[in-house]
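Task 17 of the worksheet. Students: predict the tertiary structure of the chain below and write it out as structure tokens. Keep your answer in the requested format; marks are given for formatting as well as content.
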Amino acid sequence: MDYRRQPNRPAEMTKPSSTFPTSQEQKAVPSTDRVTTAESEERSPPYASSVMRFLERIGISDPEVENYSSKDFYSVLLCNHLKTHTLQRGHVTCFTTVKPPITNFFGGLHGGVVAAIAERVAVATARTVVGEDKDIFLGELAMSYLSSATINAELIVDGSVIRSGRNITLIAIEFKMRTTGELVYSCRATFYNSPIAKL
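Model answer:
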């Protein structure tokens, strides 16, 4: 809608124009300006060097992108930064250290990594009370980002079962600073349990 004030009219909403000025009309692209697929594959985009410098600055200096598209690389990346401390019925505790590959632009633990670690710990915690005869499905993952964990910060990731019934299991995950015990992230995960079909 066009909210600009018209001359000699009060400041009110005006109806949008059904025609576009000629300056906003789309211009046809001549066929000579189009780049063929073969040519575009041979050239690197103009921003490729900037992206590589950014990745090197945050600690990812391996230019072989194919390494990161392998099957289940996501698990390998997380497992390198997550160490199990205790495993009991209804309770799992892990340690993680914030390293450059899992930080955001500002040097804090990346929000997506926090959620991914929370999901991993929640699944492990749920499996301590839900048997292998049932599948579990993540129905909800609610995150609270209360503070930030900076590079080289050591965190305790504590997962505990809030409630587990026949069909639903609720898990609480807390991320605390290892040195001070300060709560930095918290999470609630809801899993749906269903028996594995036998055909």
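Marker's comment: The first strand starts at residue 82 and ends at 88. Confidence is low (pLDDT under 50) at residues 1-7, 9-41.
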